[in-house]
Design brief:
The complex is a heterodimer of chains A (about 170) and B (about 80). In chain A, strand 5 and strand 6 form a beta hairpin. Helices cover about 40% and strands about 15% of the residues of chain A. Chain A is elongated. Chain A starts with 14 loop residues before the first helix and ends with a strand. Chain A has two domains: about 80 residues, GMP Synthetase, Chain A, domain 3 (2-Layer Sandwich), CATH 3.30.300.20; about 60 residues, Ribosomal Protein S8, Chain: A, domain 1, CATH 3.30.1370.50. Chain A is α+β, with helices and mostly antiparallel strands. In chain B, helix 1 packs antiparallel against helix 3. The longest helix of chain B has 16 residues. Chain B is globular and about 35 Å long. Chain B has about 80 residues and is α+β, with helices and mostly antiparallel strands. In chain B, a hairpin with a 3-residue loop joins strand 1 and strand 2. The chains are: A alpha+beta (about 170), B alpha+beta (about 80). At the A-B interface, helix 1 and helix 3 of A face helix 1 and helix 3 of B.
Chain lengths: ~170, ~80
């Protein structure tokens, strides 16, 4: 399956990564998007054994969609397809032109600012509903800050993260 | 036809019985109705937890049909 080494991409050695990559490639083709997918370079940003894919090309904007909705859908389906029953679930992260990375940086920054306010004013702040990944970004951004803790409330698509003051 | 093949390409990767995936497209002038049929035991796989898999397919379908200047509706037939 490995193609000639044109890019810095390393050939996927594990079946989940190979399935994820193959699926996104097929999907982009059927979506008639002028865009390519590759393994994201290992820049230390990934967590654990996360599968990270990066889409690039003239149609990247369409691949991302309004507020990242299309990218989110691609990532969700890719996670489903990458895993066979009984396999350990690995995070699958699909980004396009750095969109998700920027989005997560901004979210983490905002969470830190809000956490400061929560600690000062002693009032709970509740975010809009977010997917698991974004909630995790908030939890991680705030976890080492003094005077606050985080918690997720609600079920399914309504699940929201809260930043809660702690007396210290 | 492109929309039908898009849904088929996704569905066959999601199910246990890809040979039983059937996709039909009823195309009007600007609209398409895509009907997806899968094996009974695979229906949950194409709908997903809280309908998220179906929702994801619809999001992608909408993006592509918009690009083609059409509207498309995905119906999962059970």
């Amino acid at each position: 399956m490995s193609e000639p080494a044109e890019t810095t991409e390393t050939a996927p050695t594990d079946p989940q990564t190979a399935r994820a990559l193959g699926f996104v490639r097929t999907l982009l083709k059927h979506m008639q998007m002028d865009a390519e997918v590759a393994l994201a370079p290992d820049d230390g940003e990934g967590e654990g054994d996360e599968i990270r894919l990066e889409i690039e090309g003239p149609d990247a904007g369409r691949v991302i969609g309004k507020r990242g909705a299309v990218l989110e859908a691609i990532q969700y389906l890719t996670t489903r397809v990458a895993h066979r029953p009984g396999e350990d679930r690995r995070h699958v992260a699909v980004d396009a032109e750095g969109y998700r990375a920027r989005h997560e940086d901004q979210l983490a920054e905002m969470a830190k600012k809000l956490a400061k306010r929560v600690a000062q004013e002693g009032k709970v702040i509740t975010f809009d509903p977010m997917n698991a990944r974004d909630r995790r970004v908030v939890h991680m951004a705030v976890k080492d800050l003094p005077g606050v803790r985080t918690e997720s409330q609600g079920e399914g698509p309504d699940r929201r993260v809260q930043i809660i003051p702690v007396k210290g | 036809m492109a929309l039908k093949e898009l849904i088929r390409a996704i569905a066959i990767e999601l199910v246990d019985h890809p040979d039983q995936v059937e996709v039909t497209e009823i195309a009007g002038e600007n609209n398409s109705l895509i009907e997806l049929r899968v094996a009974k035991e695979d229906i949950g796989k194409v709908i997903g937890k809280e309908g998220r898999t179906a929702q994801s397919m619809r999001t992608i379908l909408a993006a592509v049909s918009t690009k083609l200047g059409r509207r498309a509706h995905l119906d999962i037939v059970d």
